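Human: Here is a favour to ask of a fellow structure person. Comparing notes only helps if you start from a blank page. I am asking you to supply a protein in sequence and structure-token form. Write it directly below this note and I will take it from there.

Assistant:
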Amino acid sequence: MPNQNRRVAELLKGLQAARADFLAAIADVDPALRTTPGLAGEWSARELLAHVGFWAGHASEAIHRAEEGELADFGAGEITVDERNVIVARVATETDYPTVAAREASAFEAFAELLARADPEWLGEHDASGDSLEEIIGYDGADHYREHTLDIRSWFDGSNDEDEDADDGDDDDETDADEGANPANAEPARE
């Protein structure tokens, strides 16, 4: 097992903190409303939880592919981000909330475990679309959890529409990915 360096440790710590904040925010959603659409676009808390869980799994797969020396092929020939997000949301709507929550927890645990043992040399490697492993870990992980924590918090304070553009100042394109993930939006998305 490779030695964990400071950057890997920082990524892991950030991921864990972002997820904890996300879970705290989603726990504030009244259990009776967790399957009611409208929390983030047309998504309920259930779809949002499935969504972040899926992308945590995606990051895990990227780390695994780096471990196997195959990251350069990762993502080639796959369906679009929008198509994936629609499928994930559809499956979530057909699944009970506790099952979705358990799946997200499993995906997160696998992600954290793989990240904890990741060789720091892999962070600079790139996938088929040119994204580095570090970028994938960031925007599929901590950045993604943070973004959707903001969605939940803005839903509570009624500023959902106004806060969508507030996230545009950061360095990732995750806002676009999730707007495109909503079937009501057709913007292209980034993984």
About this structure: The helical segments are 6-27, 45-67, 81-93, 97-116, 133-140, 142-157, 160-163, 174-181. The chain has eight helices and no strands. The radius of gyration is 16 Å.
